[in-house]
Amino acid sequence: MPASSAPKSFPKTFSVKSFGCQMNVYDGERMAELLGAQGMTAVSGGEDADLVVLNTCHIRERATEKVYSDIGRLRREDGTAPLIAVAGCVAQAEGEEIMARAPSVKVVVGPQSYHHLPDMVARAAAGGRATETDMPAQAKFAALPKRRKSGPSAFLTVQEGCDKFCTYCVVPYTRGAEISRPFNDLVEEARLLVAGGAREITLLGQNVNAWTSEDDKGRTIGLDGLIRALAADPDLSRIRYTTSHPNDMTEGLIAAHGEIDKLMPFLHLPVQAGSDRVLAAMNRSHTVSSYLSLLDRIRAVRPDIAISGDFIVGFPGETPSEFNETVKLVEAVGYAQAFSFKYSPRPGTPAATMADHVPAVEMDERLQRLQAALQRSSLAFNQASIGRRCTVLVERRGKLPGQWLGKSPWLQSVHFIGDFAIGDLVDVELIEAGPNSLSGRVLQTPVE
Q1: Crossing angle for the helix pair 251-259 and 288-301, nearest 10 degrees?
Q2: Which of 14, 51, 65, 277 is most exposed, with minimal Cβ within 10 Å?
Q3: pTM given for the model
Q4: CATH superfamily of the 13-136 domain
Q5: pLDDT tens for residues 226-276?
Q6: Is the Cβ–Cβ distance between 52 and 83 less than 8 Å?
């Protein structure tokens, strides 16, 4: 008889492999908590687990085909395979197609339905298959277990979905409309994260600065109000948030960067392109001028803030001169770090049907030029940091004896030598800089 491709009983061990954005990392952590609550044990090396959850991302190029490649690699030498579940945005977009093309996949679950994962796994372990891609976002969070142990830096999803409908983006179709989680739920989850060991919390959302809710007194507040409430916890040392849309940067949120010490001086604010015509074709609803003006207002209240961004090169119809405008924007802003990608069409998005697609060779050349400009910008920002005294949150051991790695307030990777532990806050002077990290010297007196 042929070897079975799935366990015949409920899985005892599992592995969750998350790809893509921080929101997927958060979702992967919550799925692991759900499975752990069923008595399952997490293992590293998913090939040896009874259940493997592939938590997918649909943003990158050829995301769907990479999922099938990952599925194929899970088959063992003896012909068996773990019970395979595909979750995340590719599952949402390709649910029935995945089931048809990959018989070894027993569970397909979208990002708003993964609270049903244990029941779906039980059905699959009994010999069936299960697909669920509904979008009752709030029901998901209410069904998840309470947070327990966390690392020194933890993610907290506060907002999901997107109403912006950028012409290149699948998020409105895979994550749904913008929704904000209730204020009290977030304050409680943050409290549990801090109690579990978190010194820093990063608030997550597709458009995180679109978050809005009523506080415990019934007042309507925005993200700045939530940040102020979380900052009141004496055991929480740092707060960050990502990803922001330029159109949702309110005056209150800008002011918070100058008023709340626990809000770190780092802002990920994607612009995507440096040409107004391309921005309009992307449906970004901001211009280069409005973006630069916004950065001026933010820097006026927090002059040392580090700016990060996203860029797409080779959007349909982008001319060489329009691409050059993007390079000029990078040089004008002085990004501390940024992500850059070649445009790739996503089925169902308006841009996929646009004419004048840029040839692949030209996109490759533009991406190399842009990344070189971004690397120069990152190196310049880091070099300008030499001599700064700051506090670093220790995240892990380094490669050298006694070496530790952590993040500066500006989200720079800093390595230093000393006798510390993960989660410590260490005062250092930044003494040497490269494009991707800095060296620090531990200070004997605290940073003021």
Answers
A1: 30
A2: 65
A3: 0.85
A4: Methylthiotransferase, N-terminal domain (3.40.50.12160)
A5: 999 999 999 999 999 999 999 999 999 999 999 999 999 999 999 999 999
A6: yes
The 3-state DSSP class for residue 285 equals: coil
User: What backbone torsions phi and psi does residue 295 show, to the nearest 5 degrees?
Assistant: -60, -35
d(CA 40, CA 145): 14
Q: Where do you find CATH 3.80.30.20 in the chain?
A: 139-384
CA distance 138 to 141: 6
Element (H, E) at 29: helix 22-36
User: Residue 272: which of 335, 320, 326, 317 has the closest Cα?
Assistant: 326
Q: Are the C-beta atoms of 88 and 53 separated by less than 8 Å?
A: no
Give the fold, CATH level 3, of 139-384.
pyruvate-formate lyase- activating enzyme (3.80.30)
Beta bridge partners of 437: 413
> What is the structure's pLDDT at 200?
98
Task: Name the token pair of 30.
Answer: 């919550």
Closest CA to 225 of 206, 235, 211: 211
For the chain, give every residue range classified as CATH 3.40.50.12160. Answer: 13-136
Contact present, 194 and 130 (Cβ < 8 Å): no
Burial, 359: exposed, middle or buried (Cβ in 10 Å; 0-12, 13-18, 19+)? exposed
DSSP H or E run through 382: helix 360-384
Please state, in angstroms and rounded to a whole number, the distance separating the CA atoms of residues 175 and 161: 5
**pLDDT, position 91:** 83
Distance CA 258, CA 268 (A): 16
Instruction: Tell me how far apart the alpha carbons of residues 47 and 81 are, in angstroms, rounded to a whole number.
Output: 8
Residue with tokens 């579940």: 85
Q: Would you give the end-to-end CA distance of the chain in angstroms?
A: 71
